[in-house]
From TrEMBL:
Start and end residues of each Kinetochore protein Ndc80 CH domain: 109-227
Short name of one Pfam family: Ndc80_HEC
Family of this protein: Belongs to the NDC80/HEC1 family.
Protein name: Kinetochore protein NDC80
Region span, Disordered: 1-116
Species name: Suillus discolor
Length: 639
């Protein structure tokens, strides 16, 4: 058992591949600060399921035991009860074992992976929205379907943090940070494969057309990861969950050994914080777990030893016996000799069979020749013929036989020729029928089915094929092709060409008229632009005159005010100095009246100029309206 404890106390490796010691650390020990790992001070770590390399996300998949209790099984914690919390902090939840360093970042390199999902398609977006809405409802997150259609930055942040918390309940969200500063680290921590394609500027308006597909795909990926994590945690028979209560009595899987080691370390850690330095209870539990397994292993070992002894006896018997290969080789040699003998016998029998067959054929030929000679001899005796007559009759018989063979050959050749001609005739008849069908379709397309327009109203251009006719001239039923149909078609074609030429001439004439109308419209447009330029120049002149009049009026008003002040001053001086300044007062009054008259004259001129310009603008508008009406009437008459 001491060896087992030494083996289980070796440094363990967490799910991120970082080496961590299996020995508990006292609270007085100095902890080295590390920016790459955020450690928990909230008590013992919850059991983390064992994940093979590359499986799941890179974050801590264990639930926190200090979150609010929720009756929803999708959100219930799978960690151990609350015990062994240190008094260093009173955190409401423990921190994540998430590594913020480059070890959780996507693979380095200039290569960027393109998202293979069709996130720009409306149908795929609708399906993603439905999946997100269903999962949020199942995890007791209050949301409506309209929220996903008109998303805001606040709603997106709430949904994102909720889904990340489901995947990693201990992820350290900081409410003091902006969401733009938390999005990329969270995606990299969860190993989102397309995090480099997300721009933080999109979070200002997440529902925009260019940013919503990618941000919606992030939420859908988190939903799929949450479902996968839930299915993994609910798979009770999976040994990688490392649940000590589910380890069988007989086991040999390394994962089961790791689960027992983790259970021993965590319980010893809790006992250590309760003040224990010797872990007798944990040692007994570990010994009991391995003791039950050792009983089964001893029983299996004894069975294997009995089976090994039986196998040794069987092997000794086989070694003492003579090798069966020699006996098999002798049997094989005998069989090969027998095969050679049988082959020799079969060869001799086959040769004898061929000789006998040839002898039988030869005997039959001789017998047939003898029978024919005997019959011929009997016929000659009966008819009393001479030898010359017999020879001549044989010669005639042979000649007639050859002639008969020639005639039979000619008849067979004639039959072959007739059959080939019938095939050719059938093919040509089918081709002729297709040609006549095409001819009929063309007549229907060009409108030459009876009745035809004058002067061809008495002509029928239709043709029918009569393959049963014996006379070749009667194969086609209808009018004569050379005398009636062909001249009629030529005449119709000439008439159509003439009509087409007339239509083409009319089209050219209409095109010329349209070109002229277009040119006239362009000229009218030029005139309108010139008049507009004149109107603009007149408006500018009127503005200049108005500005000049206003400036002169302001100068005149200032001068009048100055003269009034001088007049008042002169009046005061006259009252004070006597009658010596009366003449000066009269001169100032005269100048004042001149200025008043000048101001009145300038006002009248300005009003007249404005009225004149307004009248000219009204006349110009009437002229332009009249020109446009005449142009519209002209175009309507042309159409």
């Amino acid at each position: 058992m001491s060896e087992l404890r030494r083996s289980t106390m070796q440094p363990a490796t967490d799910i991120y591949g970082n080496t961590r010691s299996g020995l508990p650390m006292p609270s007085t020990a100095k902890k080295a600060s590390s920016s790459a790992m955020r450690m928990s001070l909230a008590g013992p770590a919850a059991r983390t399921p064992y994940l093979p390399p590359g499986a799941g996300s890179g974050s801590n998949t264990g639930h926190s035991g200090y979150r609010s209790q929720n009756v929803n099984p999708l959100l219930q914690s799978t960690s151990k009860p609350n015990y062994g919390r240190t008094p260093l902090t009173n955190s409401s939840r423990r921190g994540s074992v998430w590594t913020g360093g480059p070890s959780l970042a996507p693979p380095s390199g200039s290569q960027t992976f393109k998202d293979p999902r069709p996130i720009r398609e409306r149908s795929y977006q609708s399906r993603m929205k439905q999946d997100i809405y269903s999962w949020l409802q199942a995890t007791e997150f209050d949301i409506s379907v309209q929220t996903l259609s008109n998303i805001t930055g606040k709603d997106y942040r709430a949904m994102f943090q909720h889904l990340v918390t489901i995947v990693d309940p201990g992820y350290p969200f900081d409410p003091r940070l902006r969401f733009e500063d938390e999005l990329q680290p969270a995606l990299k921590a969860l190993r989102y494969p397309f995090s480099t394609q997300i721009d933080n500027k999109w979070l200002a308006a997440p529902g925009s057309m260019h940013s919503w597909p990618a941000l919606l795909a992030v939420l859908h990926w988190l939903v799929e990861m949450g479902k996968a994590r839930l299915n993994y945690l609910q798979s009770e028979d999976d040994p990688t969950l490392q649940i000590a209560d589910r380890i069988p009595e007989e086991f040999s899987d390394p994962i089961h050994h790791q689960a027992l080691a983790f259970n021993y370390f965590s319980e010893a850690y809790v006992a250590f914080f309760h003040g224990a330095d010797v872990f007798h209870e944990q040692d007994k539990e570990l010994e009991a777990s391995y003791g039950t397994s050792s009983i089964f292993l001893k029983a299996a070992l004894s069975d294997d030893r009995i089976e090994a002894k039986k196998n040794e006896r069987v092997v000794g018997d086989l070694e003492n016996k003579k090798a069966p290969l020699e006996k098999l080789q002798k049997i094989r040699a005998c069989i090969l000799d027998d095969r050679a003998k049988f082959d020799d016998v079969l060869h001799r029998l086959e040769s004898r069979k061929r000789q006998l067959t040839e002898s039988v054929v030869r005997e039959k030929a001789e017998l047939a020749a003898r029978c024919a000679t005997e019959k011929l001899t009997e016929v000659v005796k009966v008819q009393n013929l001479t030898a010359e007559e017999v020879i001549r009759m044989n010669t005639d018989h042979e000649t007639l036989a050859r002639n008969l063979e020639d005639l039979k050959y000619k008849i067979s050749e004639a039959r072959k020729t007739v059959m080939s001609l019938e095939v050719i005739t059938t093919n040509r008849g089918a081709a002729a029928e297709e040609a006549l069908d095409l001819y009929g379709n063309l007549l229907s397309a060009v409108g030459l089915f009876p009745p035809l327009p004058p002067p061809f109203d008495n002509i029928d251009l239709r043709l029918e094929l009569n393959t049963a006719a014996a006379n070749p001239q009667q194969l086609l039923l209808g009018s004569d092709i050379r005398k009636v149909i062909k001249p009629t078609l030529n005449s119709v074609a000439e008439i159509k060409r003439t009509e087409r030429a007339d239509i083409e001439s009319e089209r050219i004439k209409v095109d010329n008229e349209l070109d002229q109308l277009t040119l006239e419209c362009e000229n009218v447009d030029e005139e309108v632009r010139e008049i507009e330029k004149k109107v603009m120049s007149l408006n500018e002149q009127a503005d200049d005159l108005r500005d000049a009049a206003q400036q002169e009026s302001m100068v005149s008003n200032a001068e009048a005010a100055r003269l009034e002040r001088e007049l008042a001053h002169a009046r005061t001086a006259a009252l004070s100095s006597g009658m010596g300044v009366k003449s000066r007062l009269q001169a100032l009054q005269f100048d004042y009246r001149e200025q008043i008259a000048k101001v009145s004259r300038l006002k009248d001129e300005t009003i007249r100029a404005i009225a004149k310009n307004s009248n000219e603008i009204g006349l110009f508008k009437e002229e332009v309206s009249a020109q446009l009406r005449r142009l519209r009437d002209f175009v309507e008459e042309g159409n």
